[in-house]
Structures are given as structure tokens and as C-alpha cells.
Design a protein that fits this description.
Blueprint (H helix, E strand, L loop, with lengths): L2 E5 L1 H14 L6 E5 L5 E3 L2 E3 L1 H11 L16 H8 L10 H15 L4 H12 L4 E4 L7 E5 L2 E4 H7 L6 E6 L11 H7 L2 E4 L4 H9 L4 H4 L5 E4 L2 E2 L2 E2 L4 H7 L6 H8 L5 E5 L6 H4 L5 E5 L6 H18 L1
Parallel strand pairs: 1-2, 1-9, 2-5, 9-10, 10-13, 13-14
Antiparallel strand pairs: 3-4, 6-7, 6-8, 11-12
The chain binds ligand FO1.
Length: 310
């Protein structure tokens, strides 16, 4: 059973971890990761979604924040602060090694997808992790305070500005990273992780060839909205600011036409019936991934239902 997951952010990383634990052969999993959150800081190439997925699959992630590394120290940030430098984006000492080494290799001409594969080997990650593209496609958040680079909106401004829209700069010229389209085309099923539809999944779908690669197979989206709220981050606030009532239904409608299955949490079971006219298969499940075991159980149940259905 070859599985591909489109993922971004902490929720996406957790879902990928559950699926990797659930699959008999973790190498049968390919995680295609959003690169829209990537930016340059201190002259270093920072790739938050790639790092969050790789750290989580390696068991290295900070369990409290979900991003950055566990057992981290902050000596460099403290020394930067003493110099009056920027500390709004927290870079731990061990995490900095990832940014330093990635930047060194990029400057030497190594493509991002090769660097990620090499880091995954070093960290002992058995699944395949791919950036959706090796080209920079920064997400710009259009807000009532102007067009903001993603991390400025998300971290510096703590996602408070009112969102009016998004731009995925250069998406139409970007090329899928080597192996991305093949992984999607060759997958027995593709999952949209319970990530933010606007700034984690849409930037992946915007890369040429990705949408077409989803045709003719089960495409299963897991709702990141439960009970009208996002489990983490600005997804619900974005839905509201864009004129939609934040709900599992709004997520399903956002993906309508692209997905064959939609998974919503049992807290939103009442919405299932209405959704069946929009998405062929609607599954009501316990989608809350409160622990690594819960992540694995959820993924196992999803795979079980897929096998039944096929
Ligand atoms: N998120 C924050 O809210 N504050 C931070 O200081 C921060 C630092 C950071 C460093 C490395 C990294 O990989 C992620 C980091 N994040 C931080 C999270 C990041 O902004 C988000 O994880 C993604 O961009 C969206 O999910």
C-alpha cells in the first residue's frame, strides 16, 4: 500500500507520524511538504514545515510547541538579544545546525529535496519526505495591514492581522521536486493532512502538475477544523475573515472536486449527511491525535476503511 500525504505545520507532521507508524513498511509513505512558510533569516534558509515534519518523524520534535527540537538550548538567541538583534523568530541552538548546514549545501548548489533526503537519513527517518518544489514559492498573506511575508504574519504579528487573501509567489513557474508527481501518481491513496487548507495545503496544490496527479485515485482530506475551531493556529480565523463559517463543511467545500473522501471528527457528525451531496465518501471518526498512540490508531483506522472500501 503506497501512501502519499500533502502536509504542512504541526498537525500535518503529527498525521504523517501516525501514518508512518501505522504502515507495515514506512518506506511506502511519501510526505509532500509545503514550502510556502520558508524564508531567509540571519542569511539562513529556514524551512519550518519541512523541519517540523522531519523532526516529528525522527522523534526529535519539541513536544510542547510541535516545532523546533526537544531538549533545546537558546544560548545563541540569548547572545543575539544581548547584541540587540532580532529574537521574534526563536532559533534554538540545535535547530540552528539544521539551518546552517542546509544553507551551506544550498549555496554549494545542492537541491533542497536532496538536502532533505540526506538529513532524513542522518536523523533515521524511514519514510520519504519531499518539498513539493525545490524552487522558492513564498506565501504572502494579504491583510488589512498590507501584504505580509508568511512568518511576519504568523509569528511576528501572531496571525492577528485580518486576512484578505494569499499569494504563492512564483507558483506557476515552479517545478515539482524530483519524485513528487511520481509519488502522487503511484500512490494507492493520497491524504490531505489536517493542516491549514489556505497556507499549508493550497500552496502544495498550486505547484503545476500536482492537482492533475491526484486524479483517478482515493484522495482523502482530514478536517483540521473540529467543532468550528482549529486545533492549532489560524485556520478558523482565516475562514471567518474570508467570509466562511469555520466548520468541517467549509473545509470539505474548499476541497470540493479534488477529494473523493472527507474525514470529520465525531464532534461534527451532524454535518456528515449534508456533506454527502458534495463529497462521495464522508467518514465520521475520532480524529483527535492527542498522543503518538492516538495518531497511529487514527491512521490504522483510516487504512482499514480504505482497504474495506477498495
Ligand atoms: N512559531 C512561533 O510561533 N514562534 C517562533 O518563534 C517559531 C520559531 C520557529 C523556528 C523554527 C521552525 O521550524 C518553526 C518555528 N515556528 C515558530 C513555527 C513556524 O512558524 C510554523 O510552524 C510554520 O511556519 C507553520 O506551521
Amino acid at each position: 500500500m503506497r501512501i502519499a500525504i500533502l502536509a504542512g505545520g504541526v498537525g500535518g507532521a503529527k498525521f504523517a507520524d501516525g501514518m508512518m507508524r501505522a504502515l507495515p513498511d514506512p518506506a511506502a509513505l511519501t510526505v509532500v511538504v509545503n514550502v510556502g512558510d520558508d524564508f531567509e533569516h540571519f542569511g539562513l534558509k529556514i524551512c519550518p514545515d519541512l523541519d517540523t515534519v522531519c523532526y516529528t518523524l525522527a522523534g526529535l520534535e519539541n513536544p510542547t510547541t510541535g516545532w523546533g527540537r526537544r531538549e533545546e538550548t537558546w544560548h545563541v538567541m540569548d547572545a543575539v538579544a544581548a547584541l540587540g538583534g532580532p529574537t521574534w523568530f526563536r532559533l534554538g541552538d540545535k535547530d540552528l545546525a539544521t539551518h546552517l548546514e542546509r544553507t551551506r549545501r544550498l549555496r554549494a548548489g545542492e537541491p533542497l529535496s536532496q538536502i532533505v533526503a540526506s538529513f532524513c537519513r542522518a536523523w533515521g527517518v524511514p519514510a520519504r519526505v519531499l518539498p513539493v518544489t525545490d524552487d522558492p514559492v513564498p506565501t504572502i498573506v494579504l491583510t488589512d495591514e498590507g501584504a505580509l511575508p508568511f512568518q511576519t504574519y504568523f509569528v511576528h504579528r501572531r496571525w492577528q492581522p485580518k486576512v484578505l487573501g494569499f499569494r504563492f509567489e512564483g507558483a506557476s513557474r515552479a517545478r515539482p521536486a524530483p519524485g513528487v508527481l511520481e509519488a502522487l501518481q503511484g500512490a494507492d491513496a493520497v491524504f490531505f493532512a489536517p493542516s491549514n487548507p489556505f497556507v499549508s495545503i493550497d500552496p502544495i496544490l498550486a505547484i503545476p502538475g500536482v492537482r492533475a496527479s491526484l486524479r483517478g485515485k482515493p484522495v482523502i482530506a482530514v478536517s483540521p477544523i473540529v467543532g468550528g475551531k482549529a486545533l492549532k493556529g489560524p485556520a478558523a480565523k482565516m475562514f471567518r475573515e474570508l467570509g466562511y463559517t469555520p466548520s468541517a463543511q467549509a473545509v470539505a467545500e474548499h476541497y470540493q472536486g479534488l477529494i473523493t473522501h472527507f474525514v470529520l471528527d465525531k464532534a461534527d457528525a451532524s454535518q456528515a449527511k449534508g456533506l454527502r451531496s458534495k463529497v462521495p465518501h464522508v467518514w465520521v471518526m475520532d480524529t483527535i491525535m492527542a498522543s503518538p498512540e492516538a495518531r497511529q490508531r487514527f491512521a490504522q483506522k483510516l487504512l482499514g476503511r480504505l482497504l474495506q472500501a477498495s
